[in-house]
Amino acid sequence: MSETPSEGEYRKIQVTGRASYIVSLPKRWVLALGLKPGDPVAIRALEDSSLLLIPKKLVEKTPKKEVRIIVSPADDTRSIIRRIMSLYAVGCNTIYVKCKEEHLTTEQLSSIKDAIRRKLIGTEVVTESSNELILQILLGYPRLSVQDAIRRMFIIASSMFRDAVSALKNLDKDLARNVIETDDEVNRFDLYTVRLLKVALQDTRLIKEVGLKTITESLGYRLVTKSLERVADHAVRIAENVLAINEPIPDSLYQKILEYSSIGNKLLEDSLTALFKEDYYAADRVSSELEEIVAMEEGLLEMILSRKLDAKTISHLRLILESSKRISEYSEDIAEVTLNRTVEKLK
């Protein structure tokens, strides 16, 4: 038996009977966990060919992470909400919001409950009084896997992008406002995905339950969710620019902007398809096709400047093009996650 600091402790495989192979367990590990002869231990084969040993009593144990937040009526409600959202993201199951004075303000109670409803999947207010809120995160694994949540994020963000551009055609203010209001949906799934990834990092037993093959996938998926969140943010910016435009857009110009944005949306869809299929070549095509967006943008800018539009309208149209381009660039970021994950599998 030998031990190295970087690789851990080595033990020899032994044979018992005709077909069984055994390896002895480190005594220190057994004693530290309070195990005794006859106690069952689960063995899980991981993707990297290593084995994970989990005593049954740990498998059956469900950790309950409870956190208390002490606030006062003078505290900024937005700050309290950000803290709750952060605790949700890191895997807390019960959050107590308690006022150290007489009671929370009506505005604090209303805003916190509204934020929970709009931003936190699976969270309920189980107890409410004038000086305390108890929030319970009622999420089981797997309720919605990492991949499922990302697909939902994509569907919503992509739809927001399409609707924001469509609102430009007839300056549909209601449709533009609806895009802005939908942003919370993307943020909900983003926080939910962050929570799943954090939980898997903290407890490797949940890797497969949340939809991961290996823990190393978590970084790539976090980059993907961040990219999709930014796509939604830029869709909101497009909608805000539509709201600020009062001059009708010539149909020929609108059709070119629509074509430009449609290519960006298609790249976004292709990058997600390549990700889930683990298709290196499809991801590589997304990066190559991005060059088309750059060429189209230059032509569109010239077209906008050649039309007899007021300076304010031109400025907002240029910002819309900029956001459309940025959305296309996020497709390349997602494609790079696939390239980095699959390049070593190429033959």
Radius of gyration: 26 Å
Write down the domain tally. 3
Query: Helical element count?
Result: 10
Can you write the helix and strand succession as a string?
Answer: EEEEHEEHEHEHEEHHHHHH
Brief digest:
This protein is 59% helix and 14% strand.
Structure overview:
This protein has 347 residues and is of the alpha+beta class. It has three domains: 2-60, Pemi-like Protein 1, Chain: D (Ribbon), CATH 2.10.260.10; 66-137, Translation initiation factor 3 (IF-3), C-terminal domain (Translation Initiation Factor IF3, 2-Layer Sandwich); 146-345, Phosphate transport system protein phou homolog 2, domain 2 (Methane Monooxygenase Hydroxylase, Chain G, domain 1). The protein is built from ten helices and ten strands. The strands form four sheets. A four-stranded mixed sheet has the order 7-8-10-9, with helices on one face. A hairpin with a 3-residue loop joins strand 3 (14-16) and strand 4 (20-22). Helix 5 packs antiparallel against helix 8 (251-277) and helix 8 (251-277) packs parallel to helix 10. The protein starts with a strand and ends in a 5-residue tail after the last helix.
